[in-house]
Write a structure and sequence with these properties.
Layout (H helix, E strand, L loop, with lengths): L12 E7 L10 H14 L4 E9 L2 E8 L2 H8 L11 H25 L11 E4 L3 H12 L1 H4 L14 H5 L8 H8 L2 H7 L17
């Protein structure tokens, strides 16, 4: 069952992911990954708290929490007009993700001298509504490059948030909250030694 149109709502945690169109890749070099992160910081850090991510050549995964309504208002309506949002809020949040993808795709197409859609049109989002699913998604995202046989160790892939959890450098990731949920850093590392479900209820047609 498709979860692409699941509405993004304040204070809810979601597994957000998408895939390149057809057999294309999203990232052709390290600079592409860096540019995507810059665009993510510009468009999505203001509206999402981000727990984890992994970027692979042809798809991405994020574990996020939509911020509280007041914080969303400050981004959506910084002048304070406070027009009623109603159901438009979910549409605006989805549009914001689409804007990130479009901005990245435009630059990528110019660099790679390609035309046409880069991403599958509607990104997927699945609510994370219980702790077991949260921990499984957290593991799955950090192990994604291992799962797809790009590397053999969690810390061997440079484009996942697992490195950030191992670092003491300041970060915009909500890593302290995630580690706290796990019961501390030692428990966080032990959690990542456990097996994960391979599908997590995803639309596998996008990941074939």
């Amino acid at each position: 069952m498709s979860n692409r149109r699941e509405p993004l709502v304040p204070n809810q945690i979601f597994h957000v992911y998408n895939h390149a169109n057809g057999r294309d890749n999203l990232f052709a070099n390290d600079g592409n990954y860096t540019h995507f992160f810059r665009k993510y910081a510009e468009y999505l850090f203001p509206i999402f708290g981000t727990f984890a991510y992994c970027l692979l050549p042809n798809h991405y995964h994020f574990l996020i929490r939509v911020k509280e309504t007041e914080a969303l208002w400050n981004v959506l309506d910084p002048k304070g007009f406070r027009k009623p949002l109603g159901s438009d809020l979910a549409n605006w949040l989805a549009h914001r993700v689409g804007t990130l993808q479009n901005a990245y795709a435009k630059a990528f197409n110019i660099q790679q001298k390609r035309k046409g859609s880069l991403f599958i049109q509607s990104f997927c989002r699945k609510p994370v509504d219980n702790p077991d699913y949260y921990f499984n998604v957290l593991r799955y995202i950090h192990a994604n490059a291992v799962h797809h046989d790009f590397v053999t160790g969690l810390d061997d892939w440079p484009f996942s948030s697992y490195h950030t959890y191992l670092s003491k450098k300041p970060s915009k990731l909500a890593r302290e909250e995630a580690v706290s949920w796990c019961g501390g850093f030692a428990a966080f590392k032990e959690l990542h030694l456990l097996p994960v479900a391979e599908t997590l209820g995803m639309d596998m047609e996008d990941f074939s």
